[in-house]
Specification:
By secondary structure, the protein is mainly α. The chain has helices at about 1-30, 35-50, 70-75, 80, 95-110, 120-130, 140-150, 155-180, 180-195, 200-205, 210-225, 230-235, 235-255, 260-295, 305-310, 320-345, 345-365, 370-374. The radius of gyration is 27 Å and the shape is elongated.
């Protein structure tokens, strides 16, 4: 029973490691291709200009900044948002709720009739909402409701921030659905690059007790160190970016002039950009470290002359056996296909599976032997 369990546990551990590698590669691609920035722009265009975010494609950057999205362009060109860009030709991948609220309130307030404007922003926002065209997007109906239930500008800002955070939770879901195809393609690339053949691995692990023991031990060590999920998946990256804005929020609230506010936002943008760059470098190093964990176990992965020669089946005379070679190639393709599908399921799934299998194995330890070692 332990042989079967340890074989499955070893395979799950391998899927977990390669799922992390695929995730890291996907994040590197997303950062460099500005996936988050593009989807953020589209989600804002849907919100402010009534554009429909349809399909799974994130769209080319050149197709985003259209004249038809006047409100969205005004938002992204507002100092509250523009200062979040690392470079002016790059879209921001993240907008703090406070920046969004302040920018929207300012833009709506500026829409108030020139003859009726006052020094009070809250009053100007009320006037600006009354001066909107009849076919204005639904966001302004939401703003009207928030204004009607607020007693002042501070309360209104807090309500807009809360509403924006809820909206961005949905945008996060859209982002995940948009990256499904990307992660599947990356899973195939990882599978082929490292020659991850599930069928071959299963046979090797099942028949090699030493290899099985090494992988089982490594799997149990990973399960004992749950912080690895944060280290390698860097799930705290978004929270870290959020914390930068939160850290400077008191300074923003107490800024005396518009120039001071812009300077603080520039500092936030710079620190967030530095955090993203550091993540990319750390991610590349993580891939090397993770592969070394697998490579150290001497698992049959990768490519060499022996692997290539084994694809074609030859008879005793050295001639290629066409029928057997085709079957062998189909067998290899099946092994690759299963591996790619498993890798694309994601590291969190495999980590949970790993934890369950480790608990099952621990429950089956023989008292006085492995149990004592624990």
């Amino acid at each position: 029973m332990n042989t079967y369990l340890e074989t499955i546990l070893s395979l799950v551990f391998i899927f977990f490691i390669f799922s992390i590698i695929a995730y890291i590669l996907q994040e590197i691609v997303a950062i460099n291709m500005e996936y988050r920035g593009r989807l953020l722009w589209r989600s804002m265009a849907q919100l402010l200009d009534g554009f429909r975010v349809a399909g799974r494609g994130i769209g080319r950057k050149s197709n985003l900044l259209t004249n038809a999205a006047a409100n969205t362009n005004a938002l992204f060109n507002h100092p509250q948002i523009k200062t979040l860009r690392k470079q002016l030709d790059r879209l921001p991948s993240y907008i703090p709720s406070s920046n969004f609220a302040l920018a929207v309130m300012d833009l709506v307030g500026k829409n108030a009739p020139a003859t009726a404007k006052t020094a009070d922003l809250f009053t100007n926002i009320k006037l600006g909402l009354q001066n909107l065209p009849a076919n204005s997007p639904e966001i302004y109906t939401v703003l009207e409701n928030l204004v009607a239930t607020s007693t002042g500008i501070k309360e209104l800002q807090e309500k807009i921030e809360g509403w924006f955070n809820n909206y961005m939770t949905r945008v996060t879901g859209w982002y995940k659905s948009n990256t499904v195809i990307t992660i599947r393609i990356i899973a195939v690339v990882v599978t082929l690059f490292f020659n991850v053949n599930v069928l071959k691995l299963t046979k090797e692990i099942y028949t090699n007790s030493q290899l099985r023991g090494v992988l089982t031990s490594a799997a149990m060590n990973v399960e004992n160190n749950r912080q690895l999920m944060d280290v390698y998946l860097n799930q705290g990256r978004a929270a870290a970016i959020d914390s930068i804005a939160v850290h400077y929020k008191p300074l923003l609230d107490s800024a005396r002039t518009a120039q001071d506010s812009i300077a603080i936002k520039k500092r936030i943008a710079d620190e967030q950009a530095t955090a993203v760059d550091a993540y990319t470098k750390k991610s590349r190093a993580s891939i090397d470290t993770l592969y070394q964990k697998i490579n150290a176990a001497d698992i049959p992965l990768g490519w060499n002359g022996g692997v290539l020669n084994s694809i074609l089946v030859k008879d005793s005379s050295g001639n290629v056996n066409g029928g057997d070679s085709i079957i062998n190639i189909l067998w290899i393709l099946l092994g690759w296909g299963i591996a790619a599908g498993c890798i694309s399921m994601g590291a969190p799934f495999w980590f949970d599976m790993l934890a369950k299998l480790v608990n099952v194995r621990r429950a089956g330890l023989i008292p006085g032997k492995d149990a004592v070692k624990k």
